[in-house]
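Thread: Modeling a multi-component assembly for a lab meeting

Hi all, long-time lurker, first post. My supervisor asked me to bring a structural picture of a complex we are working on to next week's group meeting, and I have zero experience with this. I have the sequence lines for every component (631 residues in total). Could someone generate the structure of the whole assembly? Inputs are pasted exactly as I received them:
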Amino acid sequence: MAHRVLIPTPLRPYTSQQETVDAEGGTVGEVLSSLTTQFTDLRRHLYADDGKLRHFVNVYVNDDDIRYLDRDATKLKPGDVISIVPSVAGGSPGPAAAERSTDLSHAEIQRYSRHLILPEVGMDGQRRIKGGRVLCIGAGGLGSPAALYLAAAGIGTLGVVDFDNVDESNLQRQILHGTPDVGRSKLQSARDRLTAINPEVQVETYETRLTSANALELFTGYDVILDGTDNFATRYLVNDACVLLKIPNAYGSIFRFEGQASVFATVGGPCYRCLYPEPPPPGLVPSCAEGGVLGVLPGVIGTIQATEALKLILGAGSTLVGRLLLYDAWTMKFRELKLRRDPACPVCGDHPSIKGLIDYEEFCGVRPAAPTAASGPGVPETTVEELKARVDGRAPFFLLDVREPHEFQISRIAGSTLIPLGQLPNRTSEIPAGQEIIIHCKSGVRSAKAVAILKEQGIEAKNLAGGILAWIDRVDPTLAKY
Amino acid sequence: MSPDGLRTSSCQTLIADEAIAAIRQHGAETFPDECCGALIAVDGRIVEAFRLDNTTTGGAARRFRIGPDGYRQAEANARARGGTLAGFYHSHPNEPARPSAYDLEHAWPNFTYVIISVRAGTPGDITVWHLRDDRSGFDEGELIWPTGS
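Re: Modeling a multi-component assembly
Sure thing. I ran the full set together rather than chain by chain. Output:
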């Protein structure tokens, strides 16, 4: 019994450009077999070397895919039409997990010889490292040392997520970037530096802010996520995405002189929420930009994270799963706390209530960090240009600086009076009456709080939008920026 | 022939400016994921780059897939324009515009494969390739459009 077979465009050169061909057979398999006997060049494009249909070749009987019928054995009735319909697939050179090639070249054996002579690592371990894929969230203080060491160790693929440019104030600790990189994208600078250390490493850069919308997609395919984030919203996001995808999270965080590290989201192990079920109230824990950080501290913590990532990939050694390592650089002390998975944890517990990513800025009680947004509605503002006009004019006004004394030492707006925010409620008597009051801090967040404090005491004041940073940017660039 | 099984041929592919612009735009929009679509030719020149959904389940950052429905949509669209389905395009986010081993394994003969490199969201090199008849590799062609090279 002959059946009509519809030939797709790319295969028509093998059927003398015929769009339809008649072929004999009682089943789909028989028809395709007689088709490829008539037109032998078709065979290698339809069938793989093992004699099976290539998986991007779809065969339909009328409108039904034979995968959902009897495949090759699907019986044909008179008048049935068979269509060959291509799927088209491809992709970037970065291999998917199943395709990783991990043979070591002679050059690699030489490069990694100090690993290879460790029996705990050896050839097998180094091959695992070469096949390993680690994603660093952030190319900053923690991401820098972690990425540098992972690249040097021969990690196969190193992903880096960041959206910032290199700033002068980063250089004190973010050793991926150097002085000539100021103003460049952190990812470009990271790629250059990592490739210089080890050109064999596949560096995958993602110039984007990590969000609930892209995290799962970005993380998919990585073996370990290395959390180098600097805020709670992203930290919870990284944690939850790791738990949902079952990818271990080599966690680290730093503040002033203290750091912590652990490994979260392993199967059966605790996650960040088991340790901290709730984020701190917004504003309680200052960021590094506000609170400062000893430059070498992230070097220690980021290197610990890289160590944990390597052991996770090797599947050997004792990792920090179930342990929170606390490090104090000022007293030079390490301590350790035991952690357990919380069966009531909303994300990794026995009956999780969080089954997808949520809005983490809402969860952490923060809005996107534009200074004007942070000052909230109802706080009267003024701009640095308006302030300049007042400085140049004759009307008296009072410029109040609510930063800390050590910040005041770095740079100040001439004529300002310093009363740190914490002392303001007890020192309002120092504020002169009958003058316009303008309050500033570094970027406008603390001064917005100060305006609110004075308002409660019946004193009207205006917040300088953007703080002294905006003043330096737009009015007086001779002042030092910090 | 270079060691990766690629070689250059003198085969030229003519393509309209609009199609080049559409491929660049699509690649930038979907970055860091791969974009994909069909190329429609009229009178031996690619006149349209037609967007198709990337239905891969293997991670769109490094893979694309156009299923049978997408393929049929592409053929129907080509026919509606009075042209032919010339091939497909896709992007390589943060990778060079050269076919991967995975591309080779999945390629169809007699189709034109256009690849665009998109680095950090910015479209870059754009190249064209044809599968060798014995499936041993791709030959690079020359992509020619009125305002560029």
